[in-house]
Amino acid sequence: MAMNQYELKHCVLIFQLFLFFLWLKLFSLLQNAGSSRLMGWMRLAVLTTTVRRVLLMDLKTSNSPVIADSLPKLALPSAVMTYTTPTSFPSTGLYLNTPKKKPLPGKIEEVRAAGWLDLMLASSPPRKRQSKDFVSDVQADELDLLYRNWVVNHPSALTSFEDIINLAKGKRLALFLDYDGTLSPIVDNPENAVMSEEMRSAVSHVASLFPTAIISGRSRDKVFDFVKLTELYYAGSHGMDIMGPVRNSEFSGQHVECIRSTGSESKEVNLFQPASEFLPMISEVFTKLGESIKDIDGARMEDNKFCVSVHYRNVAPDDYAEVHQRVTAVLKNYPCLRLTHGRKVLEVRPVIDWNKGKAVEFLLESLGLCGKEDVFPIYVGDDRTDEDAFKVLKATNLGFGILVSSVPKDTDAFYSLRDPAEVMEFLKKLASWKEEST
Ligand SMILES: O=P(O)(O)OC[C@H]1O[C@H](O[C@H]2O[C@H](CO)[C@@H](O)[C@H](O)[C@H]2O)[C@H](O)[C@@H](O)[C@@H]1O
């Protein structure tokens, strides 16, 4: 008589139960008989079976997207910029030429395949207060050791200050500063990322001695509201909204469209907005993203004019994948927009070949400092998006980048500083050195 699969499974289960009781009986008999050698062998057998089971279980579950963590935490995965080449879009002429990506499988797999979930989990180091509260002493020691090894290759700009001024002597220094995490500490609510008065006066002091610009992912207006210094140049929306000096409308030998405008204190300025054609699309996507994430606890949107930020700093880590999935689902209908990743923030921006690095080149050109051997640009920033600027400076071999980080990170910056407090000290030292040397 043939058995179906269900009946067969039942038979196997009953047989296994029978064997189990047989084992128990044998076990108690041997225990009573006091046969210690046999007992030893049996323990070994039980142990081996358990180990084998655990190993098999591991093998079975190692495909689970939640357990494995094979992506290196410090590497910037090549898939950071997950965007597709649009088939048609506005005509700025700065579009990125990237190959179309293959569609990825289901939700969690999609997030992991691109390394996004790891990136989201690791995207902002714990602040000092948190590491004391939650990370054990051992972990803190390990981190400390890792940091001390890393800083050998990215020396502190404070302890190496003498080397820096030796390099800068006789050159025209230009300063580029990121805002969040560089001039103001990272806080839970982006609206509260105010700059201290002491930092403001340090920035104002250096700006009176060297051309100084702030290059931020925030909208230009918002970053100006925080900094409130008219003597600086400002680039908002990751460099897609530059208010720079009036000079020429050339960039890398190409004519670029600038708008002559009057800035604060009636100063004449040039406005360069290479993504202006994307404005209607960005505001449409802002509304759609807001709708799509509104029920996720802690998720919040920020309108940065030419880009949109989706913050997940206050979201439970279990919901990170959900945030990412909702954002990518909306973006599927917008091939002209791409997603990049900052500190606990997903940033949506136009697919144009423009970033903080290009903004630095543009500003150097507008300041009449481009391609000159006696120019010494320094860029200070803490974020992944600042890497584009670090790369530009590294390639020119004139100035250098300073990464603000208290944990080791992959970077193209040459020097490092731990936090905004050290940035302020560095700015003060620069100003004193300049004043003493003139
Ligand atoms: O280029 P930046 O000036 O560094 O701007 C990048 C993003 O900074 C802000 O977000 C970050 O700082 C917030 C306040 O400390 C923090 O809450 C958030 O988690 C960080 O990602 C800003 O709010 C974003 O819009 C910028 O894109």
TrEMBL record:
Keywords: Hydrolase, Stress response. Pathway: Glycan biosynthesis; trehalose biosynthesis. GO terms for biological process: trehalose biosynthetic process. It comes from the Eukaryota. The keyword Hydrolase applies. CDD domains: HAD_TPP. It catalyses: alpha,alpha-trehalose 6-phosphate + H2O = alpha,alpha-trehalose + phosphate. Its EC number is 3.1.3.12. GO terms for molecular function: trehalose-phosphatase activity. SUPFAM superfamilies: HAD-like. The keyword Hydrolase applies. Its cofactor is a divalent metal cation. Pfam families: Trehalose_PPase. It is an enzyme of class 3 (hydrolase). Belongs to the trehalose phosphatase family. Removes the phosphate from trehalose 6-phosphate to produce free trehalose. Trehalose accumulation in plant may improve abiotic stress tolerance. This is Trehalose 6-phosphate phosphatase.
